[in-house]
Structure formats: C-alpha cells, structure tokens
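A favour between colleagues. Tell me how you read the following sequence-structure pair.

===
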Amino acid sequence: MSDGSLLKALNVSRRYLDVVQKPQLERKEARWLIETTVENFAKYYNSGFIEYRKSVAEAEDVAAVEWNGRGATFKDVLGREFIDCLGGFGIFNLGWSHPKVIAAVQAQLGKSALPTQELLDPLRGMLAHLLAEVTPGDIQYSFFVGSGTEAVEGAMKLAKLYTGKSGFIAAVHGFHGKTAGSLALTGKAVFRRPALPLHPNVYHVPYGDAQAVEQQLRIAREVGNDIAAVVMEPIQGEAGAIVPPDDFWPSLRRICDEYEVLLIADEVQTGMGRTGKFWGVEHWNVAPDIITSAKALGGGVMPIGTFMATPKIWQVFNENPFIHTSTTGGNPLACAAALAAINVTLEEGIVEQAAEKGAYFKRQLEGLAERYSDIYRGISGKGLLLGQHFVNDETGYAVASGLFKRGVLISGTLNNSRVIRVEPPLIISYREIDTILDRLEDTLRSLRSRVVTPLPAADSEPMPFSAMSLYPSNPWAAFA
C-alpha cells in the first residue's frame, strides 16, 4: 500500500464524511451521490444489487438512493417521497426514526457506546429483565447479538448443549437466516444448495403439518437420529405470510413434550407486535422453550437480536458463562434502543394498532383480490404481516414496480415476486393505508389489459390461502 493510495483514501473519507454530516443535499450534490452510490455498489459491494433492485430499475433515469425518513414515509436524496409498505422486512415496526428511540440512543451515546467487556453493563441487565416481563411462559434469560441469524445460531447451540443432541426439524419454505447453522434450517433450495454441505442431521417437513413433524420424530427415534429441537416460525414470512392451521402450534407443543425435544419459536420477524400479538405464538397460547427475536427489537434505529429461554435450559450457560460470548452483541447503544422500542410498543398500543389496522388492510386487499381475480390467487397473513399471492412472478413484479413508480415501496424482486409481502410500519395511518390501496388499484387497472391469464370458473370461490395449500393433501404419501 503506497503513500499515494493512503492519501487518496484520506481525501475520499473526508468527502464521504462531509455528506454524512449534511442534513440536506443540494441537487448537484444529490446527483453526485446517486452516481457514486451506483458505482460503489457495482465496483466494491455487489453488482447484482444494481440489476435486481427496483430502486434502480424502475426509477426512470436515476436510481432512488434513500436519505431520510419519519413515521411511515421516507425520502430519497432528490427529495422524492415514498410510503413505506416494506418496513425493512420487519425492522421499522415503530416507523422511521421514532423520536423516543432516537433520544434513548443519543443519551447513551453521550456516556458510552461499547462495553468494557469486563465490568457489568447495566443496560444489558435492564433489557434482559424487561424481556423476561413480556415473554410467554417461563422464559427468563436472554443473550444479545447483532442480528436475527445470530440469534437463531445461538438458539441452536443452546438446544444442543442442553439436550446433548444434534438434530433439528424445520419447515419447507421456512426462513431462519443465511449463516451456516441457520441456513441449514432454512427451507429454500435457492439459498441452501450453493453452500452445501451444511449442518448435518437437519430434516424438513411441510409447514403447518403437525403429523409430519411427529412422523419425522418417530423415524428419527427408530433410526437413532437424535433431535434436539423443532424450529418453526409462528407465521412464515419469507414464504409469503403463511398462517398455519389453528391446531398446529398446540400440537407442536404436545409432540415436543412427548418426544422430549425442545420447541424453538423463531420470532425474528413476527415478534414485537407485527402479527397483532406481542409474540406470534400468542395467537395459539403456546409457550415455547426458546424464542428468538431481532429486526424490530432495535426500534428501527439499532441492530440487535436475542435468543431467550427458561431457567432450566439456561443453566448450561450459567454453569459456563464464557461458552457463548459476543464482543459487540448487546452493546449499550443497541440495548438503549431496544429498551425504548419495548416501552413505545407498550405505551402507544402498537400491538393493538397492528391487529386493527391489519384487519382493515386485509379486508381491503381481499376485496381487490376478488375484483381482480384474474391477477390474484389470494391474500394471507395476520396483523400487518400480509401476503398478496399473484398468478405468476411477472405479475407480482409488475405490481411491485408499478407501485414504486407511484411512490409506494413494497417487496418484489426478480427472484420471487409471486408473493408480495405487505409489511408497513405498525404506526402507519389509515390515510396512508388508503393511499396505498388507491395506488395499488390504479396499478392493477393498468396491468389488467396486458396480463393474460385464464379467468376462474364462474362458480368458483377464491382459494383460502394457508400453509397446507402449499403442499399435496398427503405430503407423506410417497414415503408410506
């Protein structure tokens, strides 16, 4: 590394920090930032993002580079405003830049940003206590990390240490992260296949089929594949807001108890009120042995994840507190954000808002699906974790890109757009929801003339979308 390259790096850093310090950019500066961002992604980060991000592909002559946001709206560097119907895939439950969360982080930043690693960090203790107050059943202890996939990895490790077993059962179409351990649980070949082989002794069953779980446990017992835990999302997010049958989670609890395996609820996306309950499992009054959380736990301001368990299970950590550690996990800034996020969630009735607004949003989407039955297959989900199921990927992508052109950000990529998730901040107003619906119907009207799909029979009814609609009536028939 030459002195010249270091001098160049110094000058570049000064230019970038100057942009960071500015609350607003002039149009010329904004244009420079757009061009620089596209070039930086293409040359130094990942050129694939430029191809697949609709913020580039559907923004006419310039890319949409995000700049700031408040509540359920954000602006790009050119000042164009968008309604956020994506919510960072569950990060922005409290919206963009909630003032109470920002204030908590700023106050802590004035004292210390990172822990000594040797003294006791008070905020870590505060957050662990607060989580014990809001989690179901006997969940009491927490460990803090930086992301959802780390939380799942920690839950897997804890389950293995406690049970002395190595195996796991997860669901087809489930999503638990992309690091090696959590990726082994994830039930999508597009993510798993390039990284094989992964964690051994992991088995996938159809989501929502408790019988399939029990049969897999029975087989595992007979052939000696020791199972430590069953890991499931209360409602599958990545698969398209898929809700299981009402007897699924109670049956899982009974089956896990009977076979002496742990039940892990991956609440990284469903927790903190997203589905209209504080935790997704509360829809079925089930208390798991281990819960993971992340995304919205940081209040849309700081990254933080956690895995939590009962005292009985946690004893293996208490006996050796250094068997699982993290240098930056649970740092004071992240914990301050999480403390404020839980406070706001309770104080502002965020869970109740999600339930009521979600029910309204879903009714309106179901009405659209009925009127545009040549475009939709159905609507799924609970609270403000909803899925619009379209007839094909092309239609879904066209809807997502059409909405983006109309100032609404929603999830849709070239990889899989058949299901478009509706996941706005839980503080979104009814006026903003109605605006989204109006722009969605305008998009659907514009598509109808160029989307050629067979209409359903006149006497057919809209298909009720559930977990079991993804699978054959008897998914185990081939193995009988």
Q: What stands out?
A: Confidence is low (pLDDT under 50) at residues 452-463, 472-480.
